[in-house]
Amino acid sequence: MRVAILAHEKFPDRAKTALGVLRYADYEAVAVLDRDNPGRRVSEFVPDVQDAPIVEGMADLEGDDVDALLIGISPIGGEFDDSWRGDVRTALERGCDVISGLHYFLSEDEEFASLADEYGCELWDVRKPRDDLTVGEGIAGEVDAEVILTVGTDCSAGKMTTTMQLVRDAREAGYDAAAIPTGQTGIMIEGWGNPIDRVVSDFTAGAVEEMIVAKGDEHDFLVVEGQGSIVHPAYSAVTCGLLHGSMPDKLVLCHRAGQEAIHGYESFPLPPIETYVDLHEDLSAPVSEAAVVAGALNTADLDGDEAARRALDDYAETLGTPATDVVRFGTDAVLEALFE
After folding, report:
1. For 52, phi and psi rounded to 5 degrees?
2. Cβ contacts of residue 79 below 8 Å, gap of 6+?
3. What digits encode the pLDDT tens for the residues 22-42?
4. In CATH, which superfamily holds the domain spanning 140-339?
């Protein structure tokens, strides 16, 4: 599928969905839409993902063969920015599907629904959960697969990237591993999944359990895409639901180097790393004896490999486990701890 990726004024630093799709999805990126950087290329900002030109809007792609417009950013709260309406309208009028990971459902927008019907397009609201989800039964621990859950010190700490990179590298190393996608980016990459942060609270554990039961006897290892943070003042509930619903065997703690406070909630400082380890292991203990056995450190904000390596060594020492930056240094340092 050939896609244009909308990332207005957020690319690349606050466009994790766009970057995830460019790095891991099978889509062919025709262009990234970003009003701040038209005329440039993705590779000028991020050299290790699929490259594409950056244009101001869908109107600049006239004549290009585009199958879908993918919204590659999600503001806090997942709302739709009305300044994007023109791009979505243009895409639909050209017969393009629109893929959205927002909490605002495009299929319930009267204008977009009418245009999609008129031009034969699909509006895929990735964050729209199925109606038949139920409470968990506490049976995820009964599957044959070993379950690994990525958890984080905050949102946007690298849980999705760590999940996808671990699965990709584990497969290349000969392990039978699969990803369990739980957020909009993972679902876009894998083409299936349950959007855990949109599920009714009582059904959160059941939604991840359902996926683990469905895949648990098909693979040796399942890596569950984590969400939120156990200390987050707004999103801790989804983390707890994932932890209990997946009943993991192992945990990978993801952290952004140098971060000291919750993003967007800066009055809440991050606790010490040791506190995160204790919180996750203690909270998991009643349903699963999961342990933090590896760490993933996002060193994107550090200049140079030397500074990144020092930060990584300190992080591994604090955790008392192997750790890596899965993008900068690969996953070899943690594969054995996770997949042996």
Report:
1. -165, 155
2. 102, 103, 104
3. 999 999 999 999 999 999 999
4. P-loop containing nucleotide triphosphate hydrolases (3.40.50.300)
